[in-house]
Amino acid sequence: MRNDTATASAVLALTGGPANVRHVTHCLTRLRLTLADPAAVDEASLRALPGVLGVIGAGTPSLQVVLGPGVVDTVTAEVERQLAEEARAGGVRAGTGAVETGKGSGPTPRKGPLAAALRRIANVFVPLIPALIGCGILAGVNGLLTNAGWLPGLTPALAAIASGFMALIAVFVGYQTAKEFGGTPILGGAVAAVIVYPGVAKVTAFGVHLSPGQGGVLGALAAALLAIRIEKWCRGRLPGALDVLFTPTVTVLVAGLATLYGLMYAAGAVATAIGTGANWLLTTTGPFAGLILGGLFLPLVMLGLHQALIPIHTTLIEQQGYTVLLPLLAMAGAGQVGGALAVYVRLRHDTTLRTTIRSALPAGLLGVGEPLIYGVSLPLGRPFITACVGGAAGGGFVGFFAMLGEKVGATAIGPSGWALFPLLTGNQGPAAAIAIYAGGLLTAYAVGFAATLAFGFPRGTTTGTAPPVTDRTPAGSA
Q1: 438 C-beta neighbours (distance < 10 Å), count
Q2: I need a labelling partner for 3 at 20 to 30 A (CA). Which of 158, 269, 416, 433 fits?
Q3: What DSSP state is assigned to residue 430?
C-alpha cells in the first residue's frame, strides 16, 4: 500500500533535510526541489526509494524526483506540509527565512530566459490538466452514448458537466496567470472573464462584433499579464487608503478595455492561425510532420522547449474539441519503450540494467517515460537516438492517415502511451482514432526495437552495464 507521508519524509531526509530545501513545486510527474546545498543529496539512496521512478539534476541546485502522475501531487503536498511544520517549529532555513512553496512560484536556478519563461507559462496550465482530463473523458463517453443512442436522458447532463469547464477555461487561465506572475489571482480571473461573457457580442472592435470566447486561453493569458502590470503600477503609486479602492478598479477597467478593443481580436487571429496551421500541416505534409514531431519531441523536452506546446494544445482543444498534435508527440515515448526492449534483449547479462527496464517498462507503456529515458536509453547514448527513430516512425504512421483525412486527436493533455486511449477522438469518430493510434504505437515499438537492436550498440556488443545517470538535461524538462 502506498504511503505518501513516508515517501515525503524519506525524500526530505535524503535531500539534506528540510533546512536544505528552498523551494518546492511539481509538474505532472516530477517533484521539483530547489536546494541550498546540492552535495547533501544521497542520490543512490534516493533512486532506491520505493515509489521513486528516477532522479534528474543530482549535483545541481534544481533536483527533480520522478514520482509519476497522481503520486506527485500528494507527495508534493505532504512535502510542503512537513516543511511548513518545520518552519513553525523554528527550523533554520538554509539561506532563507521560510520555504517557498507552490506550483511554479519562485525562481529556478541555472535556466536561460527562454526556458524560464516557458516553464512559467507551463505552470499556468499544468494545474488545469486534471480538469482537462476528467472533462475530456466525460466528453468522450458522452459522444459514445450519443452516437449509440443510449441513455438519452443522461447525455445532456454529461454534456453540461464535460463542457462547463471548457466554457470558463479562460477565467481559470487568467486566475492562474496572475497567481504565477505575482498579481492578485482574482483580478486576473475577473479580467479574463470578460472574454467569455456573452455580452461581448454587443461590442464592436475593428469594425466587427466580438464573439464570446474569442481569443480563448491566449487572450486570457495576455489579459491577465496586462492586468498584473497595471496592478503593480498602481500599487507602487497609491497610498494604502486609495490603493484598496482604486487599484482593483483601475486594473479591471484598463485591462478590460484593452482586452475588448485589442487583445481579444489579436488573440483570436493567433488562435485561428494555430488551428489552421495545424490542420494544414497534417493534411498537406502528414507523414513528414509526424516524423519530425515524433522524432524530435524528446530532445525538445530535454531543452525545455516543449513547454511552448501546452498553450497550443489547449487552444486546439478549445477550438476543435481535441488536439491533433498530442497523439503524434506521444509516439516519442513509444519509441523509447521499443528501444528499451531491445536493450533488454541485447544486454542479457546485465542483470542490473534488465531489472531497471522491468521496473520502468509498465510506467513507460502508460506514458511516463522518464525512468526509461534517464535510466536506460540516454545513459547508453545510441539507444536514445534509435528510440527517437522509433518515435519518428510512429509519428509518420499517424501523420499518414491524417493526410488521408482521418485525424487522430486527444480531448485533453497530460497522458500518453496506453493512458491516452480513453481520450482519443477524431474527425472520423473515436473508433477510427483508437485504431490509428494503436497502429502508431505498434509501429513505434517495432521500429524503436529494430533500430536499437541493429544500430544501438557498438559492433560485437552482447553485454554491458549502463553508466551512472548524470544530469544531462536542463532543469526545465518535464
Answers
A1: 13
A2: 416
A3: H
| Tens digits of residue pLDDT in 195-209 | 999 999 999 988 889
Instruction: Examine the domain organization and report whether 140 and 263 are in the same domain.
Output: yes
Residues 6 or more apart in contact with residue 398 via CB below 8 angstroms: 290, 294, 327, 328, 331, 408, 436, 437, 439, 440
* C-alpha cell read off for 138: 466525460
pLDDT digits (tens, 9 = 90+) for 333-351: 999 999 999 999 999 998 8
Rama region for 58: left / alpha / beta (φ>0; ψ in -120 to 50; rest)? beta
CATH of the domain at 46: 3.30.1360.60
Phi, psi of 470 (to 5 degrees): -115, 170
Q: What are phi and psi of 25, to 5 degrees?
A: -155, 180
C-alpha cell at 229: 502590470
pTM: 0.83
Number of domains comprising the chain: 3
pLDDT in tens, 282-331: 999 999 999 999 999 988 877 767 878 999 999 999 999 999 999 999 99
The answer on 270 and 203 residing in a single domain is yes
Nearest Cα to 440, choosing from 362, 334, 341, 342? 334
Residue 12 C-alpha cell reads as 526530505
- One domain, residues 141 and 261: yes
Domain range for 444 is 294-455
Of 344, 331, 429, nearest to 387 (Cα)?
331
Tell me which residues are annotated as active site.
27
One domain, residues 361 and 414: yes
Angle of helix 325-346 relative to helix 351-365, nearest 10 degrees, comes to 160
